[in-house]
Amino acid sequence: MSASELNELKKQLEELLEKKFIRPSVSxxxxx
Length: 32
Known about the structure:
This protein is mainly α and 32 residues long. Helices cover 62% and strands 0% of the residues. The chain is built from one helix and no strands. The chain is elongated, with a radius of gyration of 13 Å. The mean pLDDT is 78. GO terms for molecular function: RNA-directed DNA polymerase activity.
C-alpha cells in the first residue's frame, strides 16, 4: 500500500468520525 493510499484512507476515516461527532445520537459513548 502506498503512502497516498494511506492518506486517502485516513481522510475518509476522519470525515466519517467528524460526521459521527456532529450527531451525538450516533456517538459511540451514548452521550446525553
